[in-house]
Each structure stands twice: as C-alpha cells, then as structure tokens.
Amino acid sequence: MPDGTDKKPSRIQQRNRGRILDAALEVFSQHGYRGATLDQIAETAGLSKPNILYYFDGKAEIHVTLLNQLMETWLDPLVTLDPKGDPLEEILSYVHRKLDMARDLPRESRLFAGEILQGAPRMGPHLQSDLRPLFEEKCAVIQNWMDQGHLTQIDPRHLIFSIWATTQHYADFATQVQVLLQDDPAGHEDAATYLTTLFTRLLTP
Q1: What is the model's pLDDT at position 3?
Q2: pTM: predicted TM-score of the whole model, two decimal places
Q3: Choice between 123 and 102, residue whose per-residue pLDDT is larger
Q4: Which of 23, 62, 119, 181 lies in disulfide reach of 45, CB 3.0 to 4.6 Å?
C-alpha cells in the first residue's frame, strides 16, 4: 500500500481503490473470506495482482476495510430508531429500512453474514464496541415503550433478532427466494406488506 504520507490520493488512485473494493465485495459475497483469492479480486477488478498489492497489504486488509465501511451503514437503521417517535411506527420503519437494505445491498448483507458465521474474527471488536451498546440502548427504548403500554410485552432482544432474521433472509438466501417466488416483481412489496402485518399484530397491545 502507498506510504503513510499525508499526500492526497490522486483520482486514479481513488478510482482504483474503489474498483478493488467493489470487486472484493463481489468476490467475498460469493465465495466467503476463505474461498476468495487475490487473483479472483484482481480479475474482477480488471487489475493485476501486483496492482492490488500496491493499494492493500493483502486479502485480510481488503476484507477489514470493507467490514469497517459496512458497519456504519449496517447500524444506521437502528441508530435512527427515535425514542420520541410513535412506537409502532418506529418499529415498522426499522423493519422496512432493513428490508430495503436486503434488496439494495445484498452483497453487503452476505459479507456481514459470512463474517458472523466464521465467528467474527475480524469484526469482533466492532460488535463489542459499536453494536452491543447500541443494541442495549435500543432494547431499553423498546422496553420503555412496552412498560408504558404502547406495545405488547415481549423480549425486545428477540424482537430485534426476529426483525434481522425476517429481513436479511431476502438477501442472504436471495437465490432460493428468487426460485420460490419465480422472480415475482411484486415480491419486495409483498414482503413489506407481510412483515408490516406480522409485526403490527405481534406488537399491538
């Protein structure tokens, strides 16, 4: 990778880094970290392997860079859960944003899922320092809504797990979903309607 000087990367350098990261996202989302190779990333990016190694020290650095970039995007829908908003509307908005991310960012979802399935060897610190306190904060918000009688009393932790499971499924198992829905163009809207009904009935006192 270029030396640690403060010189701003040129447009070509910025473009090449972007090409490498986009190619790596494609390769990692298809093959997982262990199955991905620098040769595959180089071929997908349309660059030589030595060129890849000019910008990154190796596969691990590329993977960590992608994961670091992903965390903010991945946590943002939960960050925006507003304690001052209408409880049910806030929960449903969170569900819809997660479902939209499954549609719009399927590669990122599979990258995240692959890292977790491996035991989060590279993302572990982020889970502890970023996700856990945010998760506990929002669980407390949801619990407060329940204690005030706005929502049915259930375990907020497992509610959030259920939201993750029912939305990210559409990205992580996209091939299966496409086969079973026969590429139905209304599939996303139908999923949104179903999940709205599901969580509304679950949470309405």
Answers
A1: 52
A2: 0.86
A3: 102
A4: 23
